[in-house]
């Protein structure tokens, strides 16, 4: 078994597309900015994040039509230089909720939300201290 992607169900597909492509800088697979589906990949690694139009899935499953409430997901992206990456994405319109700040002695993090309210955690892994 192989994890192909994590898929987020979104109501405002175009806003989320712009956030993951233009703000976070992930590479879209097909360029389908109007949806109903798009997969985004980082520059390295095989895991991906996909967006799926919530209304389309509601028709398929006969449920999930209501907007999600509260924190229902956390997308985690690892970056090499957290401060520089945060500076870039803030200049492109991101709003940081927290950080960059230490989370443990091995990791620094920053948090933000996409246009649908999904949490995004940016991680910078540190060498073990001591």
UniProtKB/TrEMBL annotation:
Pfam family membership, one: Glyoxalase
Keyword tags: Metal-binding
InterPro entries xref list: Glyas_Bleomycin-R_OHBP_Dase (IPR029068), Glyas_Fos-R_dOase_dom (IPR004360), MMCE/EMCE_epimerase (IPR051785), VOC_core (IPR037523)
Entry-linked SUPFAM superfamilies: Glyoxalase/Bleomycin resistance protein/Dihydroxybiphenyl dioxygenase
PROSITE patterns referenced in this protein's UniProt entry, alphabetically: VOC
Keyword Ligase: no
Domain VOC: 2-125
Presence of keyword Metal-binding: yes
PANTHER family: METHYLMALONYL-COA EPIMERASE (PTHR43048), RING-CLEAVING DIOXYGENASE-RELATED (PTHR43048:SF4)
Protein name: VOC family protein
């Amino acid at each position: 078994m192989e994890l192909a992607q994590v898929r987020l169900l979104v109501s405002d597909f175009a806003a989320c597309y712009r956030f993951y492509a233009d703000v976070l800088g992930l590479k879209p697979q097909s360029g389908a900015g109007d949806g109903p589906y798009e997969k985004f990949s980082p520059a390295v690694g095989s895991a991906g994040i996909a967006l799926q139009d919530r209304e389309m899935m509601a028709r398929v499953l006969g449920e999930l039509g209501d907007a999600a409430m509260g924190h229902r997901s956390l997308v985690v992206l690892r970056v090499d230089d957290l401060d520089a990456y945060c500076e870039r994405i803030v200049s492109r319109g991101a709003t940081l909720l927290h950080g960059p700040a230490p989370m443990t002695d091995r990791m620094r993090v920053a948090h933000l939300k996409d246009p649908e309210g999904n949490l995004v955690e940016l991680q910078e892994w540190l060498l073990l201290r001591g």
